[in-house]
Predict the structure of C2H2-type domain-containing protein.
Amino acid sequence: MGKPQKRKKKTAMNKDTHKQVKMKHYAKDIDQIHTDLKPEQAVKLIAQEKDEDLPGQGQFYCVECARYFVNSHSLQDHLKSKPHKKRLKELKEVPYSQEEAEKAAGMTKEAKKSSSSMNMD
Protein backbone atom coordinates (compact mmCIF):
# COMPACT_ATOMS: atom_id res chain seq x y z
CA MET A 1 0.00 0.00 0.00
CA GLY A 2 1.10 3.53 -0.60
CA LYS A 3 2.07 6.24 1.80
CA PRO A 4 -0.57 8.58 3.19
CA GLN A 5 -1.13 11.58 0.95
CA LYS A 6 0.15 14.94 2.18
CA ARG A 7 -2.14 17.88 2.05
CA LYS A 8 -1.01 20.64 -0.28
CA LYS A 9 -0.19 23.87 1.52
CA LYS A 10 -1.99 26.56 -0.45
CA THR A 11 -2.91 28.96 2.32
CA ALA A 12 -0.71 31.75 0.97
CA MET A 13 -2.28 31.46 -2.47
CA ASN A 14 -5.78 31.38 -0.99
CA LYS A 15 -5.09 34.58 0.96
CA ASP A 16 -3.90 36.33 -2.18
CA THR A 17 -6.95 35.34 -4.21
CA HIS A 18 -9.22 36.35 -1.34
CA LYS A 19 -7.65 39.82 -1.28
CA GLN A 20 -7.98 40.13 -5.05
CA VAL A 21 -11.67 39.23 -5.01
CA LYS A 22 -12.30 41.53 -2.08
CA MET A 23 -10.69 44.48 -3.86
CA LYS A 24 -12.47 43.69 -7.12
CA HIS A 25 -15.86 44.02 -5.45
CA TYR A 26 -14.88 46.92 -3.19
CA ALA A 27 -17.42 49.70 -2.86
CA LYS A 28 -16.94 53.01 -1.11
CA ASP A 29 -17.58 53.08 2.61
CA ILE A 30 -20.46 55.05 4.08
CA ASP A 31 -18.25 57.82 5.48
CA GLN A 32 -16.62 58.30 2.06
CA ILE A 33 -20.06 58.61 0.47
CA HIS A 34 -21.06 61.19 3.08
CA THR A 35 -18.21 63.39 1.88
CA ASP A 36 -19.30 62.82 -1.74
CA LEU A 37 -22.83 63.98 -0.89
CA LYS A 38 -21.65 67.49 -0.06
CA PRO A 39 -23.03 69.82 -2.76
CA GLU A 40 -19.69 70.83 -4.30
CA GLN A 41 -18.52 67.21 -4.51
CA ALA A 42 -21.86 65.88 -5.80
CA VAL A 43 -21.92 68.37 -8.68
CA LYS A 44 -18.45 67.24 -9.77
CA LEU A 45 -19.43 63.57 -9.66
CA ILE A 46 -22.71 63.97 -11.52
CA ALA A 47 -21.30 66.17 -14.30
CA GLN A 48 -18.12 64.26 -15.10
CA GLU A 49 -16.16 64.46 -18.30
CA LYS A 50 -16.48 61.52 -20.68
CA ASP A 51 -14.16 58.67 -19.80
CA GLU A 52 -14.06 55.68 -22.13
CA ASP A 53 -12.82 53.36 -19.38
CA LEU A 54 -15.98 53.77 -17.27
CA PRO A 55 -19.39 52.23 -18.02
CA GLY A 56 -21.53 54.65 -20.02
CA GLN A 57 -18.43 56.82 -20.37
CA GLY A 58 -18.96 58.02 -16.79
CA GLN A 59 -22.14 59.96 -17.61
CA PHE A 60 -24.60 57.92 -15.51
CA TYR A 61 -23.49 57.85 -11.87
CA CYS A 62 -25.39 57.15 -8.65
CA VAL A 63 -23.72 59.30 -5.97
CA GLU A 64 -25.40 57.49 -3.05
CA CYS A 65 -24.21 54.04 -4.16
CA ALA A 66 -20.99 55.17 -5.91
CA ARG A 67 -21.83 53.15 -9.04
CA TYR A 68 -21.62 53.87 -12.75
CA PHE A 69 -24.29 52.70 -15.19
CA VAL A 70 -24.31 52.05 -18.92
CA ASN A 71 -27.32 54.23 -19.78
CA SER A 72 -29.99 56.38 -18.20
CA HIS A 73 -32.56 53.57 -18.27
CA SER A 74 -30.39 51.30 -16.11
CA LEU A 75 -29.73 54.24 -13.75
CA GLN A 76 -33.47 54.90 -13.41
CA ASP A 77 -34.09 51.19 -12.74
CA HIS A 78 -31.36 51.28 -10.09
CA LEU A 79 -32.93 54.30 -8.38
CA LYS A 80 -36.12 52.23 -7.89
CA SER A 81 -34.27 49.13 -6.67
CA LYS A 82 -34.07 47.70 -3.17
CA PRO A 83 -30.27 48.02 -2.74
CA HIS A 84 -30.43 51.73 -3.60
CA LYS A 85 -33.23 52.31 -1.10
CA LYS A 86 -31.27 50.43 1.59
CA ARG A 87 -28.26 52.63 0.92
CA LEU A 88 -30.40 55.77 1.24
CA LYS A 89 -31.64 54.50 4.60
CA GLU A 90 -28.05 53.90 5.76
CA LEU A 91 -27.02 57.38 4.66
CA LYS A 92 -29.75 59.05 6.75
CA GLU A 93 -27.80 58.16 9.89
CA VAL A 94 -25.24 60.74 10.96
CA PRO A 95 -21.70 59.32 10.65
CA TYR A 96 -19.59 58.99 13.76
CA SER A 97 -17.09 61.73 14.40
CA GLN A 98 -13.76 61.50 16.16
CA GLU A 99 -15.22 63.37 19.16
CA GLU A 100 -17.96 60.75 19.58
CA ALA A 101 -15.41 57.95 19.42
CA GLU A 102 -13.27 59.61 22.09
CA LYS A 103 -16.29 60.19 24.34
CA ALA A 104 -17.27 56.54 24.02
CA ALA A 105 -13.73 55.51 24.99
CA GLY A 106 -13.70 57.93 27.93
CA MET A 107 -11.02 60.13 26.40
CA THR A 108 -12.74 63.50 26.77
CA LYS A 109 -10.81 66.64 27.63
CA GLU A 110 -12.21 66.62 31.17
CA ALA A 111 -11.13 63.02 31.69
CA LYS A 112 -7.64 63.77 30.41
CA LYS A 113 -7.28 66.77 32.75
CA SER A 114 -8.51 64.86 35.79
CA SER A 115 -6.23 61.91 35.11
CA SER A 116 -3.22 64.19 34.68
CA SER A 117 -4.04 66.08 37.89
CA MET A 118 -4.33 62.78 39.78
CA ASN A 119 -0.88 61.77 38.57
CA MET A 120 0.62 64.97 40.01
CA ASP A 121 -0.77 64.33 43.51
